[in-house]
């Protein structure tokens, strides 16, 4: 390839293909949970957050429109899996908090995902996976646009 632009396109293709295979491999972790993929993603973001996130923060971190994340958050709240609390830093962007039911559901999905990961890692070099994770984090940080806020 003649330009770094082309390498970025090849990387994007590899990420998309790998992401598809990973989603397929981990689909069974969501079985019986009855959440859409986006709902599961938002629940994970809320349960695993160090501080209660807002919908816009999750949207920026995931690279999804706020409206898509808001719909998933509303569905999770309706099911009693997350709750909202006033945000002292922003009047309109409430903080999202996991409920006990949401945390239990997420832990169950995490346990299933760990079992799947253990099976998959047998075919992979753990050091390469760690290095790929580090490199992708570095690339993501390099692609960050300052006007969108800090990436997560």
From TrEMBL:
Matches recorded under SMART domains: HTH_MARR (SM00347)
What domain of life does the UniProt record list for this protein's source? Bacteria
In this protein, which residues make up the domain named HTH marR-type? 8-141
The record, for SUPFAM superfamilies, names:
Winged helix' DNA-binding domain
What name does UniProt use for this protein?
Answer: MarR family winged helix-turn-helix transcriptional regulator
* Entry-linked InterPro entries: HTH_MarR-typ (IPR000835), MarR/SlyA-like (IPR039422), WH-like_DNA-bd_sf (IPR036388), WH_DNA-bd_sf (IPR036390)
Q: Which PANTHER family does the record match to this protein?
A: HTH-TYPE TRANSCRIPTIONAL REPRESSOR YETL, TRANSCRIPTIONAL REGULATOR, MARR FAMILY
